[in-house]
Amino acid sequence: MPPEASNLSLEKAELPTPSADDKLPMALFGASGYGTFHLNALFSLEKKGLIELAAVADPAISRLEEVRANLEEHHVPWYEEPGRLFQQERKIKAVSIAAPIPWHEGLCRAALEQDLYVFLEKPPVPLIQQWDSLLRLDASRRIAVAFQNIASLPIQTLKHWCVEGRLGKIETIRITAAWPRKTKYYERNSWAGKLHLGDVPVFDGPATNALAHVLHDAMFLASPQPSGFAVPLEVKAELYRARPIESYDTCCLRALLEGGIELTAALTHACEETSPYKIVVTGSRGKAWISADGTRLENNQGWPDIEEPSAQYRSRCYENFILYALGRRPRPDTFFADTRGYVLLTNGMILSSGAIHTIPTAYKSVVDAGQEASYAIAGVLPLLQTTLEQGLLFSEQGVPWAVGCQMQSVRQLSSLSLKSCLPALL
Known about the structure:
This protein is α/β, with parallel strands linked by helices. It has eleven helices and 20 strands.
């Protein structure tokens, strides 16, 4: 029988109301774009008595009239420069970093220099050398990464099944997702679809931004330790662009993880229709899968399905970090150190692919026009389905545009450059 939810190592969504002294003074870096989710979440957490929203910083805040009005209504000071916030707001004990990927490393460094706890939006940093450098600064384990799926009841239950051996020896993990992205998505800021912003690495794309959490989920599920995360040993990957961008919008990969587990994934933004992400874990005794974009756990053993709305586990992930920073919980859902497997996996992707391959015009189409335009690879959804069912990469499925690659070891990977993948002409 599957474990009861009460037996899982999840904090309850309904938390005890702390005393005034237990409130965590927090600041937010990044209040536009996805930062609006963080701002609203922090206001909700303040109402629960868990935090005090002490300040907000965003370089564009002078243009964000509604955000400023909201902050001023709640008597929350705002700044354009994080450095200015640090100088003026000495009482803060933690920061939430919802800033763009290129600024993650610098803001984390600045926060750690102030001995603050950090809730860092995923993905952590693009390159393994950045990761290693930040880890050395995070000796006191103050950084948590907002891979919110780890806090979900479906993922936690599946992890329990894997650790307890209910599915037998885990053999494969397979992942697919098709999340369309329109031109307005790529024009919303200066770094979308980029490998670099100036000299700062970005590595934007489905596996390294919007769908990063599904690969991190795989690292969690593959480890036999209850709070552990696996790391890859070897990676074979193919990176493609259908849209005329620097970076990739489509990828597939196969990786050998610790313990002999094979991970296969195929992800794309170059599609007309949405196909919610699915994570299928197959063991020697049975199979279970996460579906409906992470909100449902199903299985072939006759156990009841497990469901939870995404809003609940997003909130729980935030709350678990706050409780950790307050000393009321032994750990957040994901320490910064727990993301090594994810960063090695994504770095191994570009190392193996060697380049980002452009899909020929004959095999793609443009749907709609202007900011509503989507690029769609012909037959991409059946390709993803074959990856899910058979574990085959695109080049192994016989499609004429696919480019095969070699398996690359990431055991000793300590540095990587993206510049060799910059297109000479788009």
